[in-house]
Write a structure and sequence with these properties.
The chain is of the alpha+beta class. The chain contains four helices and ten strands. It is elongated and about 110 Å long. It starts with a helix and ends in a 16-residue tail after the last helix.
Amino acid sequence: MSSLVDLVIATGLFFVFTALILTFVLTYYTNFVSVLEDSELRTSAANVNNVFFGGEGVPSDWELRSGAPVRIGLMTDLNRAPIIVATKNSSDFNNFTVNFTVSFDPSCLNTTRENTIRVFNDTNAEHPYTLYNKTYCVSGDYLKSADFAMNVSLVALRPTRFSVYYSSEPGVNATSYGTIPYPRYTNWTSNMTNFTVVKYPVEGLKMVSMTKVRALRNLTYSQVAQTLGSNTRFQLEVDVP
């Protein structure tokens, strides 16, 4: 009788442990498949990100050409010229005009379209300006150098940073600031004794090209997918002004 009881107990324990093992195996397999799918999605997302945001594409001006590019890239060059304006004494200056020259493209590599130029102050607010004495490269569409006139206010002995941004991006709307008069020579030489303007080397940055993003709307799904180098299914929505 005791042997029969032991057999029943042993059989019950066997089924319990078997059920636990099967549950563990199924849970592990389900989690493994989920992790594997997640890893594949991450790899695909990284690949799409590298293709779209890893460069300008091949050819680099594919957005201006007809047909599908060899490789889609949405990035373009953005240049930043830091400018520091500071007083030389303990006096404050309110809304006076400063003047400085920026050499955008001395070698005429076609890096600067006039409409792309923007100036931001040290609070990241857009700052009005007017360009004078502009010189252009041979093509006529690209700026080589120009003089800036800006009205600024300075606190005594506190340098103020301005950043001049520019690029070769086409299709950018021109600014609509009011005209700032070019400072007269007598006023300029007088102000030069009261403040300094220091220009630092131009910094090369990258930005997303809205022209390239808009050009995606002219491509079919298959034309975009063939540049990814893998069978990646994705949905792309492009909605830009």
